[in-house]
Amino acid sequence: MAKLIYSAIASLDGYVEDENGKFDWATPDEQVLAFVNELERPVGTYLFGRRMYETMAGWETDPSLAEGSPASRDFAAIWQPAQKIVYSRTLEAVSTARTRIEREFDPDAVRREKEAADRDLTVGGAALAAEAFRAGLVDELQLLLTPVLVGGGKHAVPEGVSLRLELLDERRFRSGTVFLCYRIASSGNAGN
Ligand SMILES: NC(=O)c1ccc[n+]([C@@H]2O[C@H](COP(=O)([O-])OP(=O)(O)OC[C@H]3O[C@@H](n4cnc5c(N)ncnc54)[C@H](OP(=O)(O)O)[C@@H]3O)[C@@H](O)[C@H]2O)c1
Questions:
Q1: Ligand 1 centroid to residue 186 C-alpha, Å
Q2: Residue 55 near ligand 1, beta carbon < 6 Å
Q3: Around 137, how many Cα atoms within 13 Å sit in the side-chain half-sphere?
Q4: How many angstroms separate the CA atoms of 188 and 192, rounded?
Q5: How far is the CA of 157 from the centre of ligand 1 (A)?
Q6: Does the C-beta of 51 come closer than 6 Å to ligand 1?
Q7: Beta strands in 19-114 (DSSP E)
Q8: Is the pTM above the cut of 0.85?
Q9: What is the pLDDT of residue 192?
Q10: Spatial contact of 121 and 43, defined as CB atoms under 8 Å apart
């Protein structure tokens, strides 16, 4: 069965977006983006919350993004051919290929996607990821922690979810960003 991976770039205090809705501080440099590309390359399907989709769609609709650097070009080339499922009750149309809209997050449907897939899936967007965590669907957590404290905003990992994690990998980068990859070992009360 394919894995569902939640991957996020967060501040060291655990936010994907600050209180002003900004996340420019999370923009990966060339070294980190090249690493992200190796994480993304094997992924076959992206599950996106609508807000994350709207940010990421630029990698297909705005050619200037890919022109920024070799790693950006590579990222666009990896992102575009992947299948995308966007969760939204409001979005009327998508702007990218191989993309469908789902109006509800149905855990059983995602479970079936995992069973049928021969390549891993990722979930992007903290709000949507929280639903996947609550449904017990997330197998792996990948965090790129940026060396900045933003003091508040949107939590990268869901509140009210208790899980035991097993560290699978870690990496440090020249920028001070740190990568942490965990397997979800078990659900239940992590305090016990
Ligand atoms: N840190 C970074 O590197 C980084 C990178 C890119 C973007 N971001 C930003 O981080 C923010 C994440 O915000 P977020 O967590 O609110 O975004 P999100 O999870 O991507 O999107 C939330 C939206 O997804 C839809 N949704 C969620 N659950 C659903 C369900 N059960 N059924 C149907 N639709 C559902 C809803 O869309 P509707 O309102 O349409 O119904 C909801 O408003 C975004 O602003 C994103 O742009 C951060």
A1: 26
A2: yes
A3: 25
A4: 9
A5: 13
A6: yes
A7: 45-49, 83-87, 99-102
A8: yes
A9: 47
A10: yes
For residue range 55-79, list pLDDT tens digits in order. Answer: 999 999 999 999 999 999 999 999 9
- What is the Cα 150 distance to its own chain's centre? 19
How many angstroms separate the Cα of 30 from the Cα of each of 27, 66, 70, 130, 131?
10, 12, 8, 29, 31
Q: Mention every residue, 6+ apart, whose C-beta is less than 8 A from residue 68.
A: none
CA proximity to 177, closest of 6, 30, 5? 30
CA 130, 135, 136, 137 torsion: positive or negative? negative
Q: Is the pLDDT confidence value at 191 over 80?
A: no
Residue 10 has pLDDT above 60, yes or no: yes
Residue 155 pLDDT > 60: yes
